[in-house]
Automatic annotation (TrEMBL):
<dbReference type="InterPro" id="IPR001296">
    <property type="entry name" value="Glyco_trans_1"/>
</dbReference>
<feature type="domain" description="Glycosyl transferase family 1">
    <location>
        <begin position="240"/>
        <end position="418"/>
    </location>
</feature>
<protein>
    <submittedName>
        <fullName>Glycosyl transferase</fullName>
    </submittedName>
</protein>
<dbReference type="InterPro" id="IPR029044">
    <property type="entry name" value="Nucleotide-diphossugar_trans"/>
</dbReference>
<dbReference type="Pfam" id="PF00534">
    <property type="entry name" value="Glycos_transf_1"/>
</dbReference>
<keyword id="KW-0808">Transferase</keyword>
<feature type="domain" description="Glycosyltransferase 2-like">
    <location>
        <begin position="451"/>
        <end position="602"/>
    </location>
</feature>
<dbReference type="InterPro" id="IPR050834">
    <property type="entry name" value="Glycosyltransf_2"/>
</dbReference>
<dbReference type="Pfam" id="PF00535">
    <property type="entry name" value="Glycos_transf_2"/>
</dbReference>
<dbReference type="GO" id="GO:0016757">
    <property type="term" value="F:glycosyltransferase activity"/>
</dbReference>
<dbReference type="InterPro" id="IPR001173">
    <property type="entry name" value="Glyco_trans_2-like"/>
</dbReference>
Amino acid sequence: MSALWGISFDATPISGVIVEFVKVARLFRAQGLRVHLDLGYDIKADKNAFFRPYRNEAELLPEWVELGRIDGIEHIDGYTPALVSAVLAEVIGRNDDTRLRSVMNTIAAELQSRIIAQWENNDVSFVVVENGTLPENVIYTTALYRAIEEYGSRHRLGRFVLWRDHDLMWQSEPSTGRYGRFPYPHTPVPVNSPFIHYVALHEEARRRTLEWAPHLREISVLPNTFRHRRAEVDQGNAAFRADHGIPEHAPLIARYTRIVPPKRIDRDLHLLAALPGAYLFVAGDRAEDPAEFARLTALAAELGVADRVVFGGRLRPYDADPGGSGYSVRDLLAHATVASFLTSYDYESYGNPIGEAIAAGVPYLTSEYELYDTIYGTKGFRAPVLDVRATDLPTPSFVDEVAELLTDETERARMAEHNYALGQRHFREGQAERLLDRLFFTPMGGRTKASVVLPVYNEAADLPAVLDSLYRQRGMDRAEYEIVVVDNNSTDDTVAITRRFAEEHPDLAVHVLSEPEQGVACARRTGMDFASARSKGRGSGADQRLLLVSADADCRVDPDWLFELCRAMESGKAAIGVCDYYYAAERFAGRPRLWDAISRTLRCRAVTFALFGGFPDGKGFAVDRGTYDRVGGIEIFYQLRDGRFVNHLSDDWDFGIKVRGSGEEILYAPKSRVEINARRVDHAIDEVITGRAYGSDGIIVMRDIRIADPGPADEDLTEEEARQAWEFSIKDFTPKNTILPVLLTPSLLEDDAVIEFFGADLAERLGRRIAEIKDEMRVVDFTPIHSYKTPSFRLYFEFAEEIFARLRATVGADIGYPPPLPPCLRDVPPDRFAEFVKYYCEDRESGEAHNYFGNGGVF
């Protein structure tokens, strides 16, 4: 079972940051993940908790949250609170980093390795970072960013990190200049990582974040949400007032924040002094800031309210699971008359205590802190509001307003009901679920039979029609399949179109993933890995067969495509199902020579696919989930091109070879049909004619057929061009589709239909020769498709005349005869022909054989 790793830069066991983490983590736990949380004691230096062991912090959190730390972090040489404080003061505050830079880099590298080791040990699949942008500890931040890049690349995780900021520089005591002035030149700017999705609490936060870091591509708004359930006195909390010495009918003001100077609890004490008979309950850790707690208790005595103030210690969070030990914030609100939030003007970002009071059906009073109007005021919430820009302490008019609210039960009820209704509209639960569904995963439905994976790269023009065709599949209920769109770094509206489609078609599950490594193979693998992992949590349907289905964003699937593919797979025992691919003849009207070359290839393929099952093509195939996992999924190989490593194009064929080589069968589903986009031919026709459609010299290249205008589509080939195109097409086709299947599965040569196609004599000699070549070969290339190309090419040259004779007899006389031999083989003595074929096909440095056979699929 994989895990979620949470990191809080707050370094406190309970705060708004931790509360929001728990809300998000609860959703991951529902997906079956273990949840770990690092409270950040070893990050912030000003909380007096560096390296301090956890004590009873776990009691404040749900039992399913396991507190975690980075193992051995205390043994990193030089990593101390003093160093962290010095970096904050000298590097961030004064940009004097000459003394500390090398030390910082050394420690960051050690931290990076320890973070990665911790994630590996805990099988981490997702990470949530809370408040990590504040430059309290830029050594740790640097290490964390580097760890994310390395771990994400190593495990091909996509955007596996949710990075949420509650207090950006502009909203965390900016008047002190602690972190510098905008644009904060000495503070690390958020990294535009392919593994991170940033989250801001509201649109204003998002706007100001992008003003600071305009390069960020992935940043969403996720407001804090609250469980709307009116707080009530019940059997579990009935003794709350008595336990804390608060008279049953006395007005009670609830204050539940950390006891630190920026929270300005002193304002509540001054307010209490002006409200005879009222009580104040302060929930917070009295030991977090002993000096501030001492100051407040002395002030309470000075104001004569010490007997009406209860410093009740930490309470469990507002959204804590019921039944836990001790009282919670919700229990306090059940007994409170009003809730108070008289905080500093430039300290708060969201003001969770207000939201929690609203959701509990309790009136509140507040200071007009900087973002109060952004979050609450402009939405119409009603409350006494203290203008702290004009006055520091409660004014007589503010006191009068609060006193009236405390004594007027009808007005309190009216205000609470008004705010409660508004709160349900603006802060109801579910927003986090929708964002996480979009960013990570939705549980797969128990009835889901197929997950259609669609890699996309700048497909805005064609994508609406492709998605519509997938939506309108016949014969299958939409609860029986889903679509997984994998964006491969699109720069157009591809992702926006997909998300809009998903919103407009809620009856079909549509997921949007991102794959940062460029290449359709990488995107296809990401989508299939995603679907495979999720399918194991289908509940009652977890054991039923699931098909991982590949589709292509520039092709069109027929209305019965998915139904016929699934039906064929259900009726047979094959691990892979291969679709029928066709071109629409009308798209080649007026080009009879070109169409003749295309149609002859398609006729040959129909025969061999029916005999041998064919091989998967990314345009449309299905694989059994169990088989996919067992053979290790789609494997990405690399090749050198122009001095750089690039993805190998033929991942679909490589995968088919892996599956067939493992002993599994491949099935041809002729009624499951995919129309190939004619622009593939139109754009690359010159390369098709010369046999360079997808590269040369052994290098297979993915061409982007959308980049340029393919030119006129009504010009036919000349007779010479048509002959060349056909020869390269049939040379590419024959080794891959008539020889490779029996090379991989020699037992096919014992099948009656295959014997009838080849003829008994040829089938027997092919089988004998395959065994000889396999025994002879000792060196196998690192790419499966290449390791089978060489013997396939050799067998082609040795048996071409006979195989073409069988194609003429089976497919039609117009198939003709084998194309001319390479010039170097024409003068080879017949008795040494097989010997020199071997040298020719194994000469990989020159790539001659690959060039002769066209090096990639055409038509």
